[in-house]
Here is the input.
Amino acid sequence: MSNQRIVSRLKEISSKALDEVFGHKVDSSQLIVNQTKKEFDGNYTLVLFPFAKALRKGLPEIGEALSNYLTNLAEIRSCGLVAGFLNLEIETSEWKKELQLIAEDLNYGISSASGEKIMIEFSSPNTNKPLHLGHIRNILLGNSCARIHDALGYEVVETQVINDRGIAICKSMHAWQEFGNGETPDSTGMKGDHFVGKYYVAYNDALKEEYLKFQSSKEGLAFLDSKKKSEETAETFWSNYKNAYFNEHSTIGKATKEMLLKWEAGDSDTIALWKKLNDWVYSGFDKTYERLGVNFTKNYYESDTYKLGKESVEKYLKKGLFYKEPDGSVWIDLEDAGMDKKLVLRSDGTSVYMTQDIGTAQKRYEEFETTKMVYVVGNEQNYHFKVLFEILKQMEEPYADGLYHLSYGMVELPTGKMKSREGTVVDADDLMDEVIAEAKKSALEHGEIEGATDEERNEIYRKVGLAALKFQMIRVNPQKKMVFDPKESVDMQGTTGPYVQNAFVRIQSILRKMGAGSLEELHQEYELKEEEKELIILMSSYPDILKEAGSNYDPSLIASFGYSLAKAFHKFYHECSVLNAESEQAKNFRLVLIGQVSRLLEKSMAILGIEMPQRM
RNA sequence: GGUCUCGUAGCUCAACUGGAUAGAGCAGCUGCCUUCUAAGCAGCAGGUUUCAGGUUCGAGUCCUGACGGGAUCACCA
Here is the structure.
């Protein structure tokens, strides 16, 4: 965590000091300045070890000479040398100046528009079932990255590819047709995506039943005898044979595949049925997205994009980038780039996933001219994207250098992975209901919201509950797999969203009573407390943190910032009274200070899609 | 098996990209509400950073190897 202005100033003067005292020229960017550890005096620390060798002098000698030089500067109050660390204490007036700069900058942390465009793809659900916990991580990461890049001056295009075609949705369609008796989301009062998901489950139950029946039938037993390897048990054979059964024996499977063929042929009844179910699903997704607070600039539908890319492959086949096998399939050899050979067109000339992704990337660039494209997709597809990006690079696409796979780890439960077969999938809507209900319970225990209307109360429960959920999801480094404990997600204490909100709410309570502080009177005589300096140090690191979060595509850094700032505030709150401050100067300073703290808490959490209540 | 990835307190996560005695939260124990919201603060306890080597002033972080988890290696999406 570093402070842009003060740290770069410290590096600059240290570099100058080294030059003037020792005639040693070092670029200021080479210097290491860290925040001083709590157990030592000082605010920032210059690391001296690298100079011992370069100057062929002892660390004490270097330290003392630099101390003498630096202490004479207006910004530095004192220097302390511990081993190879030179601890610098910054002059009070500098802290006030820093606070003033933050307060006066209406766009603090925000970069002006660069004209650069970035596209972020996230969520990208299948339409056969509702969204679950895994989607929530994806969506929150994608949305946060979009907000981060907004703040960094990019024009952001948010998009999702909706997987609306294929065998999966046909399963739901078939099941609804067979067992639905014409019922609808309206007639059952169900949310559309859950309604369609119900039929997907029903389909799989029916298939399973059929499979079990086959296994015990004469035909099935004879089949088992003829195919089973001697070392296999019947159980493992059937479990491995599942997919092949679906493709080769199942009557329900056959009907479903026929449905898919009809869909591909454009059969009007099938298309109508398909549209009906998908529309139900979209109305359900819309509600979930709205509740999560996310929007998309543009949706791509796989039914429109699944044929893209073929022409490109054929074009680059002629150019020799791809090659054709005798059976007619088309491949690319990436062995020089450390990867395998990869199929891009089947022998029957149809395209595969990779082909479609190539085409979709090109189409997006044609439509939006985004030079950066981020794909928020789970890490199980790391290799796929490595290959995709390499192909696009070899095709010399203009955006090839701006491709990024924001690969995130799977979400697991304390009991292990979520498995739909075992019914352990955590549904997105249910989870939101749960955290909001828990926020309500918690508010009834500790909340101070007397006098609020029912509507206001519900808004508070919603904000607090969703804050708990969102913070819990985002605070973990995206790259890592995470364990999500539903019990912890409804926790409102410690490293949580509500903890951060509580800091904000406490500030609002003070500001309601006392009004804002005066910037003009900020520079009156007043010696800052450590807790106050700490808040300013943290706030001054915000622009750098935003940039780092952007360049690393890592929103967890923002969550971490918000928590640190809230924690520092809670400590300040305990140590320093605003209402009963020891002097008018102290009171005014604190009012200005907490005004900025509250502003940054709100802004940083807004980037994560977390809203702040006025009371809780 | 090949490739990639991860391994930090009982649990969930940090560690400013190589800097000081590895930090938080939860769970456990102890204090603090007549005072700006106790969804808070302070404290106790909890660690050979999986293991073994190496690189250097300095390694949780970089390199090599082992062990252990996960992912991926389809003319599936």
Q: What stands out?
A: Residues 40 and 82 of chain A are 9 Å apart (CA to CA).
